[in-house]
Amino acid sequence: MSFELGEEHQEVRQAARQFAEKELAPRATEIDLAGEFPWENVEKLKKYGYLGMNLPEEFGGGGMDKISHAIVVEEISRVCAATAVILAVHNVLFGETINRFAQGAVREEVLRQAASGERLGAFALTEPEAGSDAGAVATTAVREGDEYVISGRKTFITNAEVAHWYIVCATMDRSKGTRGISAFLVERNQPGVSFGKPEDKMGIRASRTGDVVLEGVRVHHSRRLGEEGEGFRIAMAALDQGRVGIAAQAVGIAQAALEASVSYARQRVQFGKPIAELQAIQWMIAEMATDIEAARLLTYRAAALAGMPGRHSAAIAMAKLFASSVAMRHTVKAVQIHGGYGYMREYKVERFMRDAKITEIYEGTSEVMKLIIAQSLLRGQ
Length: 381
Ligand SMILES: Cc1cc2nc3c(=O)[nH]c(=O)nc-3n(C[C@H](O)[C@H](O)[C@H](O)COP(=O)(O)OP(=O)(O)OC[C@H]3O[C@@H](n4cnc5c(N)ncnc54)[C@H](O)[C@@H]3O)c2cc1C
Known about the structure:
Blueprint: H1 7-34, H2 39-47, H3 66-79, H4 81-101, H5 104-116, E1 121-124, E2 140-144, E3 147-158, E4 165-171, E5 181-187, E6 193-195, E7 209-220, E8 224-225, H6 231-267, E9 269-270, E10 273-274, H7 279-306, H8 313-337, H9 349-358, H10 366-378
Parallel strand pairs: 1-4
Antiparallel strand pairs: 2-3, 3-7, 4-5, 5-8, 6-7, 9-10
Helix pairs in contact: 1-3, 3-4, 3-6, 3-7, 4-5, 4-6, 6-7, 6-8, 6-9, 7-8, 8-9, 8-10
The protein binds flavin-adenine dinucleotide.
């Protein structure tokens, strides 16, 4: 058991940090304020091989392990959390799910496009009436010969409209509950696919979030993921993997808040000395640093487990629950350390605070993470 990153992972961090600071930092604030989808960042992620970095090499991916992926998401989030979620959803919720559950030639074609970053992917589970209760999806899929006809509305979908491919969960039989749900692959330009207007969000504003509307969309059976009725299981397996990325995103945001706080405390003078000399400030910084280190360790452990066979839902939920809470609490502290300046758009800590909140909500809220952890313990797993 080692608590230090090996040489290879340290190199991954160094490269990702350089990439984020050189390529993403200059416009991170601007795209946040404008709520502008950063196509130029997508191009850069593609050019540097981060899109598809975790997908198999035989399809053109980077073949990198889960800890490397978590490190990259963490480092990108430290600079631009919006860009990190574009990447994480494409690579994990979409790419890894295609790798595991798509079939034959469709799997190969779509994986190649995802691994090269040529075409972005999205994952569409949530609906207006099916959020935490994801098994309540009302989007329907009706089999007609070789095809399924899909109708319904997906809401709050990351990469909506900017993605080419969508994994869509739909029910074939509501009386069967979660066992009636199947998962399909839908293309942006198919007849019957349209999009709602992009959501105007509190944080991660440069990422795209919106509705995906499906009206009689015809999908060939070769574009079904897994078997009929396996859609919910596939979605839950995808979310287990995805949550490692959200934990890493939270660690990255919290780390950025800590660094900004240390730097500000050193230079801000009140009562004739830097505020860094005040114990009240030192205690906040010490608590931030300790919690972030703990969140990072839980996240890397979750990443290591996510790369092993079997389900590791509870350990991954613990990492997401803890890291997102650390990010939220400590970005608020970072604003406090900055005083009135922290409340101004000019200082990045207010962006970090807005960005942190989403990590407690998407890919399962903190309350849902607690349910997963408690159920696992109570079932004796
Ligand atoms: C920016 C953003 C991006 C997103 N991206 C995607 C995406 O790409 N794909 C996708 O499918 N979805 C996506 N989502 C949806 C997201 O996963 C859901 O918003 C989230 O799971 C919560 O669902 P809800 O919003 O319907 O809240 P609700 O489920 O209505 O929850 C409301 C409150 O009730 C609590 N609650 C609900 N049930 C329970 C319970 N059983 N026990 C205790 N408390 C409970 C919740 O924790 C929460 O506090 C995104 C959301 C946002 C905001």
